[in-house]
Specification:
The protein has about 375 residues and is an alpha/beta fold. It has eleven helices and 15 strands.
Length: about 375
Amino acid sequence: MLRKKLRVLVVDDTIVYRKAVSDIMEELPEVELVGVAHNGKIAMSKIRTLKPDLLTLDIEMPVMNGLEVLAEIQKNNLNVGAIMLSTLTSEGGEMTLRALELGAFDFILKPQSKNQTEGKKEIKSLIHPMIKAFARSSLASSQLRKSSVSAPSGRPLLRRPLVSESIESVTRAEAIPSTHRGRSEIIAIGVSTGGPNALTQVLPKLPGNIGIPIIIVQHMPPVFTKSLAASLNKKCELTVKEAEDRESLQNNTVYIAPGGKQMKLVAGADGRNRQIKITNDPPENSCRPSVDYLFRSVADYYVNRSTAVIMTGMGSDGTKGLQVLRNKGCFIIAQDEKSCVVYGMPKSPIESGLVDIVAPLDKLADEILKTLK
């Protein structure tokens, strides 16, 4: 059966990017380019007439910017998704996080290269897998619509994480037996596409006196992870910060790996405490920071005393690290398929029998706390 092509509208005020992204869309076999717009106001008009499935949406535009477009889409309950094009600046990071809060599926950075050919190649390498992932998530939503499940008011169905509300959907997986476990003394989390919103639903539910450190790899570029940490810190009882090289782990603190770097745990000078080490080691699974890279180091220092959580995201980063953690007695929790924006990163470890608990997003915090008792 032939699958319907994804209808895409390209929105950007810069002619160079508008042309580059449009050309890329026309090259992708699963995409139908339905039009272009050079500001948000024109985009809103074309959304109503052309009925695209997806926008590639610049954040900073005259007349009506990308955030205002997303707000209008949400206000009018329009059934269209968005992939944002952002700039690598502090302001760009903050605006991108706001775009994700408003329902954008994901984002890519506008390339830094002055060579247009190289820039176009970079955009294509980033946006193509994202579009494939969006198409799969849209297909899932379409199946739900056929079952008479409608979107809640003010939230477009194609971009909404599909969250189960039933506590019965928390399942004990058929995990590979591991060694005897004690109470967890650290939580390690790996997450990617859909992560900022997912973390916003999980971390604020954890108490400020949790009594252990939490370390996180969220796939994001430099600058953006600092913005994410600042945003989460305002919403949580826990202290949330971007991790720094050689700082000692402190209880009741959440450390987010800095974008563009690798993060691992190492022994402190006293041999008893653990420190964070930030490195320029190569990407793993095309990711820096990489979940696998962090998880392996947790396995070295917290045998039988750790909890790992694998959440929404594209790809399979984290699976190999979870195998190492499983061999060292780690308790492993995975986000379930229905509540993932993209069911990539949890899929492989669940199917491989590495996971103890599979839970929807709204139950992850409860399951984490159970491992600390």
